[in-house]
Amino acid sequence: MRNKWTSRRVRSCVVYLTNRFLLICLPLLTACSSKKTEVAWEIDLPRIGSQSSPRTADLNLDGTLDIVIGAGENEYVATARGILAIDGQTGTLLWHHAAEDLVFGSASFQDVTDDGVPDVFIGGRSCTLMALDGSDGAMIWRYDPETFADDAILKFARHNFYSSALVPDQNKDGYDDLLTQNGGNPVIGPGIEEGRDPGVLLLFDSQTGAILAADTMPDGKESYMSPLSYTDDSTGEIKIVFGSGGETIGGSLFVAGIEDLIGQQLDRAKVLATGEGHGFIAPPVLADINGDRQLDIIAISHGSSIYAIDGNVYDILWKQQIVGTECSNSFAVGNFNGDEVPDFFTFVSKGTWPNNTGLLQILLDGSNGQIIFSDSLGCTGFSSPVVYDLNQDGLDEAIISINLFNCSEGFSGEIKNIEHRLMAINFATGASYVIEQKNQFKNIFSTPWIGDLDQDRYLDIIHCQYYHGSSYITSFIGMHMKRISTHIKMDGDVLWGGYMGSAGDGIYQASH
Question: What is the C-alpha separation between 458 and 469, in angstroms, rounded?
Fold first, then answer.
């Protein structure tokens, strides 16, 4: 009898070794190589966990990328280890920095101290937004909401900060500026609109933390979405994409020019799409899908309405709806069907938040929005896929993180038994492969990272798992991170290797 969690398409090739599962299945996906796939290092960090995703930069200038991730003990709990920097070569902790609450944003990097080391910008719950010296984690600046308690707009910026985007230098100080969103009041229950502050879009001087511009959402709604920034190739104008609404509160997706934010005129923003009863939480992605050399906007609402929007005239190119589901997961972008138009892969959750009862994996044809692959692996999770051509057949595969338990227990119920799996999906054959699995571990929010850490042209995988000693799936008692050094020889760069892409900016630029 096959395991109730394993579909007939799933191929398992893990082996049990010293009480741990060790990845060995990637030989099924690629040709033989003299290099072995092995765990290069692993690190255990007690008491803490993460709702952040790893991003990479060389912080100690040894030629190997290091890992930065937000962390924390649990919601509304201060921690000494709110931001972690981990040596990509050895897995040792380079530095850590305290935080008043969970730091769930993913890091942005820019050297603003002029020492040749990328500095770190990261945010999270309880109005946390910090700039840290990349070399030692020392504070450069932090946002203090009390300073702006009487400001007509900034008085609303007292909730959560999300992942930031770097915007080309607006104040002519030689550094890119930092665009980020503040919003979301988690103490107000689902469906209650009273007491919800409008989300605030802010532009910071990245070197000093001075606020260059700020404005509220044009519709006055809350916001949970990380904003995007890109340059319009036809006009040279800097565009920003942002969204409003939540899990049970309607909202819209907007595009505006950076000058609209600077002029405190976000009411001039173009409404791209609107959801009733659901807002836009997951960041959109930007990719050219109609061949006009202009980035188009592909977005999914929390109600699983998917829009592909022409980046030039903002017409809807196609629309798709995944009935009976909700979505807080961003897209991964890749070449999955071989027609040279980027395609889009994500997870959607069955049922209604916070009692979702399963996952669907959905692959959309970028040319017309049709569903060309679907599966139902796992029960809950808000991480996003990553993408690479693992078997070098000219088509991309995806690596995903899923959790297996009794799905009928729902997201918010007590869960006694759980298993985490890191998996690869070959869309050409429909087969899913278990890369690694661990009992009584989970991963709800952290997207894996794939790329070349040490510049040896072999693929590395960084992924996080969290101990499940409690009956509640969102609580933390410790985290486990590892680097898997694979035998997969890289033929070209990884274009979508982390949350919001390899560059963390939501932009997909196909290589030629």
Answer: 35
Percent of the chain with pLDDT over 90: 84
Cα–Cα distance, 446 to 464 (Å, whole number): 7
List residues bridging with 203 in a β-sheet.
179, 213
What are the tens digits of pLDDT across the range 194-246? Answer: 889 999 999 999 999 999 999 999 999 999 999 999 999 889 999 999 999 99
Write out the DSSP string of 30-85: S---SSPPEEEEEEEEES-B-SS--EEE-SS-SSS-EEEEE-BSSTT--EEEEEEE
Are the CB atoms for 133 and 113 separated by under 8 Å? Answer: yes
For 132, 240, 404, 445, 475, the CA distances from 97, given in Å and listed in that order, are: 9, 30, 33, 21, 21
In 77-187, the DSSP E strands lie at 79-86, 93-99, 108-110, 119-124, 128-132, 139-142, 160-161, 165-167, 177-183
How far apart are alpha carbons 496 and 482 in whole angstroms? 20
- CA 344 to chain centroid: 15
Q: Which helix (H) or strand (E) holds 459?
A: strand 458-467
If DSSP states are collapsed to H, E and C, what string results for 257-273? EHHHHHCCCHHHCEEEE
Q: What are phi and psi of 229, to 5 degrees?
A: -135, 140
Q: In whole angstroms, what separates CA 196 from the centre of its chain?
A: 25
Whether the predicted pLDDT of 27 surpasses 70: no
What does the DSSP 8-state code read for residue 507? B
Q: Which token pair is 187?
A: 């103490």
pLDDT digits (tens, 9 = 90+) for 254-284: 999 999 999 999 999 999 999 999 999 999 9
CA distances from 80 to 21, 66, 125, 179, 205 (A): 31, 20, 15, 26, 27
Residue 7 has pLDDT above 70, yes or no: no
- Spatial CA neighbour of 232 closest among 212, 265, 210, 256: 256
- Please state, in angstroms and rounded to a whole number, the distance separating the CA atoms of residues 105 and 504: 11
Distance CA(213)–CA(490), nearest Å, equals 42
Q: Which structure tokens are listed for 30?
A: 């690629």
| Distance, CA of 311 to CA of 428 (rounded, Å) | 30
Q: Note the pLDDT tens digit of each residue in 173-187.
A: 999 999 999 998 877
Q: What per-residue confidence (pLDDT) applies to 1?
A: 29
Residue 117 DSSP SS3: coil
